[in-house]
Amino acid sequence: MRTYPARAVRAAAGALTAAGLGHTLWNGVAGPRIALAFGVLIAVGELVRRDGRGPDGPGGPGGPGGPGGPGGQPPAEDRHGAPLGSAGALAYALLGQCAGQPSRHGVLQVVAVVVAAALVGTVPHIARGGGQDLDHVARRVLTVAFAAACFQPLYNSGRLEQWFGQGPLLVVFLLALLGLTALCDAVLAAALAGARTGRPYGPLLRDELRALAGIGSAICATGAVMALGAAVAGLWALPVFSVPLLLTQMSLRRITAVRTTYRQTITSLARATEIAGYTRPGHARRVAVLSCAVGRELGLSERELTVLEYAALMHDIGQLSLVDPVPAGATAPLPAAEARRIAALGGEVARQTGVPDEVAVVVERQADPYRQQPVAARIVRAVNAYEDLAGGSRHPGGSLAALEKLRLGTGHDYQPEVVECLARVLARGGRARVVAVPPG
Question: What single-letter DSSP state applies at residue 320?
């Protein structure tokens, strides 16, 4: 069911692309010099954007969160990885005059120019394995077509100037239109991400709307300023107004690199227990993968998923303080007091590594009764217990028996909703044939 909205988005983008290219080829390009200038700007913006793929690690293809981050989609700064191209496309859609002369291009030509330029700039990314780039182009086509359809007919008919003139009211209209365009883009992005990751639509849309307050607002503002500047100063306004956004894009790339390094550091710390022989190889990563999947099922936000991922990776780090290792590193069968002591030690170690305090809180409270825990700690506790029980020899029945053991503990130790979400995730992933039944 979740794939239907994504298919509709791609089909609509394909139909618009065919109509735009066919119309432009049949009737020719109106204002070819202007179209070429904006096309080059969009293509350059696409060429210099990030791929949104990191190395193997928590945020990389092989990391706990899947491609791009814990939510299985690119982080906020990578969703708008081509801000220059986005701003240029919006500016062309909202361009009424160039150096005081009418531009004379319509909605279908806007679509054709944006598609052609975006594909030219996207080809190198696709060649490097950017599988999500076509969805990125589909979003761009529909978003720009929406903006152009709201602006170009009004401008070409003269109603826009009749209603708003050339003063502040026109600027207000453009800002309102850009706000609606940004909302349209967020809706499309959430639909495509839901089809790609399987996450609930509501939390995805919430994350997209939150991202609009950052680089999204800068893109909209730059697009409006480019269109207004080109109307007065001509095409020379494009490079002038492109510089600030290009510098912002470079800064975002550096910030993303720092975050990638931070994730790699967390992953290395999590492997310390495996290297020292306290836990089984890959245990922390498996718990992080499954915890993020359960968190997505519960509808956690992107920030909450990041905290959950870091805490899941570091959940066993307290075992490094033990003189005698826990057999097989399994803390689930331990007495409650001993499990809480190890968790408290883990929280102290986590704080010394410099992770956010909320991550350390999840680590140190993972062994508490679930009613006293934050949501992330409830997830980590249940998933860790499942991994301990299903991965060892304590339950020859495997994952089904481990889940039944968790269900028996839902009165005090594990939250029933978390256990049932875990069962659904495992059933979809094929790691266990389970049926979600009421807790026993």
Answer: G
* Cβ atoms 399, 386 nearer than 8 A: yes
CA-closest candidate to residue 309, choices 5, 65, 23: 65
pTM, two decimal places: 0.71
* Region at 369 (left for phi over 0; alpha for psi -120 to 50; beta for the rest): beta
For the chain, how far is it from start to end, CA to CA, in angstroms? 30
Q: Which residue(s) pair with 101 in the sheet?
A: 98
For residue 70 the two structure tokens come to 């814990």
Residues 331 and 352 sit within 8 Å (Cβ to Cβ): no
Matching residue, tokens 């089809």: 195
3 state SS of 52: coil
Quote the tokens at residue 255. Answer: 């910030």
Largest CA distance in the chain: 82
Residues 44-79: pLDDT tens digits?
888 877 655 443 333 343 344 443 455 444 444 445
Are 211 and 74 in contact, with CB atoms under 8 Å apart? Answer: no
Considering only CA atoms, which of 432, 37, 36 is closest in space to residue 229?
A: 37
CB 164 within 8 A of CB 194: no
